[in-house]
Amino acid sequence: MPGLFSQFSDYFNLNRAERRGLIVLLALLIMINIGSLFLPFLVENRSAAEPGFEEEFSEFFLKQDQMADSLIAVSSLGVPVLSSEKNEVEMFYFDPNGLPVSKWKKLGLTEKQITVIKNYENKGGRFEKPSDLQKIYSIDEADYKRLESWMIIKKNTVEELTLSLHDFDPNNISKSEMIAMGIDDDVASNIENFRESGGYFKHPSDVQRLYKMDDDLFARLEPYIKIESAEPDYVSTDSSTIHAKISLVVDLNRADTLDLQQLRGVGPTFAGRIVKYRDLLGGYCKPEQLLEVYGMDSARYTGILPHIEISSTGIQKININTASVKDLIKHPYIEFYLAKSIITHREKIGRYADVREILDARLIYTELYEKIKPYLEI
User: Fold this and answer.
1) What angle do CA 346, 347, 350 make, to 5 degrees?
2) Which CATH superfamily is domain 250-309 in?
3) Which of 5, 51, 240, 317 is deepest in the core (most CB within 10 A)?
């Protein structure tokens, strides 16, 4: 027994350096154990001392969700992205008014986004134009750009049923008579302003050129438009002063800023805007494009409409077989995803044989095609 104890004692016999190391190790172990006991209290105190600590975490995860949502816009063009909860997206033409929840999910929206949209509808909200969807706070810029080209908003049939139409001459019908027929006040005012500025309706199609006269409304009015009055040689003002009818006509695609300033209500600044926007477009195709010029209102537009014309020559066109994305997005009607879609489809088919073939590309629908067609070539 004493021999066994002696061997055991010799085995655990430590020199001075080893004893010091053992003491330091034991001290560290004790400090770690004590620290683990107080750690929950330290974390709790930090959270209490910083009220925004939990909000920062929530905001971080919300941004992660938004980033995942925005990747859908890229994935819709065939670019591979990391997986997210919205990994199955089906794009189709839709009217956002009354769209079922299941359809919104197919379009790639989250439960939270759909809930906000439905709450808006339940409170009586209605989407009158695609840009109204962008006003929903849960819809970010990427989702709106992805959905914008697929939205087709139907007219409110309740408003259309209020029309009580009969034959009329747009050159002499009064504003009150137009309103009694159910024509919108803005449209009636534009017809009246057009006449007062020296304009004269020679053909029913002239009515269609007016601001806020959409295709659906004109289609209903056209059968009742009967132009019977002769074109007057003079136009009277309210003060009974007789003025010769103005014969000035300016070509929007050839006029410089000095020519444009001859138009009523167009000064140097506004003339510069018209020319600048003409350069961005590559030339005007129809008078209504003047309404896209910054600051142009319906009153000014109807005032100058009788005195402008548009030459069909000189329109600058983009070759869709050679243009890059950078070339395409220079045009104000073509945004990035649309340009990317046109290029992607070109790479798929090899080359466009006809401009109409871009209708087979994603994000292109008939109305948009008609809008950009005058500026494209092969």
Assistant:
1) 75
2) Photosystem II 12 kDa extrinsic protein (1.10.150.320)
3) 317
